[in-house]
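Predict the assembly for these two chains.
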Amino acid sequence: MGTLLLQSQTQTPLVDTIAGLLGLDGLLGAVVGGLLGAFLIANVMLVTTAVAGPWAKRKITASFTDRIAVNRIGPFGLLIIVADAVRLMSKELIVPDGVDRPAWDLAPIILPFSALMGFAVIPMGSGVHLADPEAGLVYAFAVASIASLGLVMAGYSSNNKYSLLGGLRSVAQNIAYEIPLIVTAASVVIFTGSLQMSEIVAVQAEPLVTVAGITIPQWFAFVNPFAFVLFLAANLAEVGRNPFDTPEAPTEIVGGYQTEYSSIYFVLFYLGEFIHIFLGGALIATLFLGGPAGPGPEALGFVWFTIKIWAVFLFTQWCRSAVPRVRIDQLIDIGWKGMLVLSFANLVLTAIIVGVIV
Amino acid sequence: MSLEEPQDSDQDQPAVEGRSLGDELADLLGDHVLSREEHLNAPGFVIRPDEVQDVLFKLRDEAGFDHLSCVTAEERSNRYESIYHLKKYDDPTQEASVVVPTDKDNPVSQSAEPVYRTADWHEREAYDLVGINYEGHPDMRRILLPETWKGHPLSRDYEQDRPQVVPLREHANPLEDDHSGDGGDTMFLNIGPHHPATHGVLHLKTTLDGEQVADVESDIGYLHRCEEQMCQQSTYRHQIMPYPDRWDYISAGLLNEWAYARAAEDLADIEVPEYAQIIRTMGAELCRIAAHMLAVGTFALDVYGDFTAIFMYAIRDREKTQNILEDLTGQRLMFNYFRLGGVVWDLPEPRAEFFEKIRDFLDDLPEALEEYHDLISANEILQIRTVGTGVLPEDVAKSYGATGPVARGSGIDYDLRRDDPYGYYDKLDWDVAVEDGCDNYSRLLVRLREVEESAKIIEQCVDLLEDWPEEDRTIQSNVPRTLKPEDDTEVYRAVEGAKGELGIYIRSDGTDKPGRFKIRSPCFSNLQTLPEMSQGEYVPDLIASLGSLDIVLGEVDR
């Protein structure tokens, strides 16, 4: 463990790189580098989401349901992304009577930004890593949780009963599932002994076993598959996908908190949801799948990382197409009576095992 | 349990030792009976309007008529009439009609609601369309038309040309009574008329206690298209047949057409050639599969949530039956294939190819059903969602006149194809699917099993049709160009539609158009059970229950 700490990289690799390229240093370099880096990462995530939302999601769902989906505009229908962007942005923004104005306008902004901010501490490989604070993991969970606030604001300020029900459901759900989520993540921290993201990734690079000349790294998905499954399930609830999509539940409460939003506000909600899924994927990749690690040169790290978060995205879409939704009371039951107990059991067991072995 | 032999083919004389059912019931009712009528399907008893409950209680408790199939109301030249069509769940061939004439000036009759809960909506419809008032009814309001409507459209003095000027402000504002100022613990929520899970335009006025349903009231009539009146203005021979396709339009067209065909053929005493009956049976069962596929698919959609695999798979398989039906009838939804006395044309040529297509579909079906069972009925999450939710006990189901998969999911072994045989069903080997779980899950299972049974029936029909001698392929019997059934003949006949008992009452008036044409829609009766199922349950279960009822608003509102 002690040797691992020494291996920790520079605190802010991407910022330093940018500052170096511009020939700046000191405070100015940190500020300019930080802003440009943030701009870069945010745009990477937005592009990912743009591909995922209007195009990949349709294609994936279509292949689950024996359909073809978009294939008319551009190669493989890819230009539908442009068409959809134009369509959604040119729609009328309908502001219903009696909405609680500042809150109603802020909610769709909070949602994508809380998820985007989480990416600041994610090491995406190939030197793409904006900040590496010591409490990185806690920071990621903290900003991701702000999304709940956005959902409640949207639900409460929309002056619509379906929205209110959706907002209430999302709070109940997030409380019930974020605790198991964080407790499960804590079991990883017991292994690494650090909350720093680069640390968590570095520990996973260690070999676990070598079978027939192939070295299997110490990814926590292999070390503690139970925690991995728990985290994956809790993450589905966190991002609100089947079987835990009760806050939206179109067939029950129409669209939940987003019922009254149209045009660009709707886009922001949609965007927020997708970035949230990718942030969930990024956390899963970082905590359990070795972050940007993969075969080939280190420069490929970003590619591997992208593949991993897309794999998680694919998993959520798969669940969406194949798993029925549970009822809200059952969902809360599963959260408090099942996941919470299991996650604490996992934490205690991990602590005992780590304490005995290490 | 396999198909039982039909007990007694002569339906008017099922009683023992030469005494007709009518005589027995007349003895039972004694002085209540003012006079007797003979309807083609059942003995009719004319009673006083203030003795309705006494008579119906007697018939229900002492004679075993536990199924109020339909309430027909009509205005005659000198009186209003309510006709209660009674049946027995154990043996629907035993029927009785209770005729309640009421005064022209003051049409007030006692309500049957305390005896049969289903009378609630049926009598409201009678009030709405014909104008009879029912005393003691818990909720005497219009049901299909808006509360502000002027006049009763099926009454004789209704001014059809008078414009219905109803300003917007006189309409009930759906937001008005949101009860938000009550200070109570409940919240009023409008589910529909535009809601993803109402399967059409249905408005559920729901009162929520938290997420639980404290009360729910269905508001129907958004799709009312005056079907009964249109049929009354059309000739028996050709003009009525296209309409049934538009009641339950979920590709159950042939089943609906059969309801009209059966009633009209009995009324005008028309024979149907055996060959045509087999084609009808085959076509009707294909329709049933198509209808159940959509029911299962949309039910899964309601429970699963998002647009999911199972819905598309169900639509994919439904598409195959639609292709076969298109080959057979030339249409995909509005078939208009039946004719009085047979069907409009023979099977498509080349016949071998057509049979091949059906057999291919039937061969693939078990595998497809296996997939459905994997994805739906065997799915544990779906089971925790549906087992034990939307419970409809057997006696409640009977009281509400529930039929079809809804009744059979509540353990009521009632299927008109077997119990009141028509077509070719009694000569084929198949079973009635019954589940006694009384919940959403049972209703789902019943539908999936019925698809299997329908496949069995189709297979046997194809076998028969393949070997049918070429010189004997009569598709229609000789039916006069203009049908004028004898004046004042009344008949109520029902068939097993995709959703349940689809009944038609026709009274002839000596012309070539019906004097009164009444549709008994299974969805209308089934939908009434929704509050019983969902009170105290969660909103998602309300939606699931609604999905498991498999209503089609076109048939509810007609």
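The interface with chain B takes residues 61, 64-67, 161-162, 165, 242-243, 245-246, 249-254, 320-330 of chain A (CB under 8 Å). Residues 96-357 of chain A form one domain.
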